[in-house]
Design a protein that fits this description.
312 residues; alpha/beta; Rossmann fold; Hnrnp arginine n-methyltransferase1; 2 domains; six-stranded antiparallel sheet; 7 helices; 15 strands
């Protein structure tokens, strides 16, 4: 992993300040022991140290751990201990008051934060301790602007009487990291629906599923769906990747449709979303778009799956 990726994290002041506020809320100076899981260059662990943590254990398995070691040395962080392995592989006894992990992706669960925190909470966290973040809510909204849809349909415009439909279908069975403007979403983004809520302070499944639907007050073309997340770091401190919140280095995810949906007034458009993330299997995403008439009868369904978007 190149250092440039970590520079984008350090440059994300919205992210950094939210985690600083969260750590300040739960660290008791001179007493709290902290575990930073997925420490990267060591920023959050150093924040914890500067806030008075008695000890900080930083877990980092990637090559950037070498930089983290140098950063800790440059900051004379004597109470910070770098552990170059994944926290799930650590077998020594460890008892901490705070677990913090910024293992969040554009799709919130792609770095397996659910399983990672569940393991750390069971084996490392003292009774009454704190987990940061405490939970994640995932949102979805219909996309009413054709910009990204037109980009993805380049296969149709090659001309010369050449049919590239199989490649087009694969392209549409993918999720895309894109920055969407609120004006490109139904209701200016205010129509977003929470399709999934995850409590990271207790055991929960890494397999997620949810649904949402909207009854339209006027005719509209739906080109796809956008998703994003809001993480509660601690009560009162949140971090969001949504289009109506301060921008972070994360962006939204765009889920295409096989064909845009022409929705009439009082008709309903809905989406069902499923995901499964694991260290071994990676992230699998699937989505179903549903078009209903005003009485609730199903007019059409479109089923897409990220697994169909990969070359065999």
């Amino acid at each position: 992993m190149r250092i440039e990726y970590h520079r984008t994290l350090i440059a994300d002041h919205v992210r950094n300040e939210a985690f600083f506020r969260a750590l300040k809320a739960v660290i008791e100076p001179g007493k709290s022991v902290v575990a930073d899981i997925g420490a990267g260059t060591g920023l959050l662990g150093l924040m914890a140290s500067k806030l008075g943590a008695k000890e900080v254990f930083l877990f980092e398995i990637a090559e950037v751990a070498g930089i983290a070691a140098e950063v800790l040395k440059a900051n004379k962080a004597k109470a910070c201990h770098l552990i170059p392995c994944h926290s799930t592989e650590f077998r020594d006894k460890l008892a901490v008051d705070v677990i913090v992990s910024e293992t969040l992706g554009n799709y919130a669960l792609e770095e397996n934060i659910i399983a990672t925190l569940a393991d750390a909470r069971r084996r490392f966290l003292k009774s009454g301790g704190h987990v940061v973040p405490t939970g994640i809510t995932q949102y979805v909204a219909p996309v009413i602007a054709p910009r990204i849809d037109e980009e993805l349909r380049a296969w149709q415009g090659v001309g010369h009487d050449i049919n590239l439909a199989p490649a087009q279908t694969m392209t549409l069975n993918n999720a895309y990291v894109r920055l969407l403007q609120a004006s490109e979403l139904l209701g200016g983004g205010r129509s977003a629906v929470a399709w999934d809520a995850i409590d990271l302070t207790r055991d929960t499944r890494s397999k997620r599923k949810g649904e949402a639907e909207w009854r339209l007050s006027k005719p509209q073309t739906i080109y796809g769906f956008a998703t994003w997340w809001t993480a509660e770091l601690v009560p009162g401190v949140t971090l969001s990747t949504g289009p109506l919140t301060p921008r972070t280095h994360w962006e939204q995810l765009y889920f295409p449709l096989l064909d845009p949906i022409e929705v009439k007034s009082r008709e309903v458009v809905g989406v069902e979303l499923r995901s499964n993330s694991s260290e071994v299997g990676g992230t699998h995403l699937a989505w179903v778009a549903i078009h209903k008439n005003a009485q609730g009868g199903v007019l059409a369904r479109q089923s897409l799956d990220l697994d169909k978007g990969y070359l065999p």
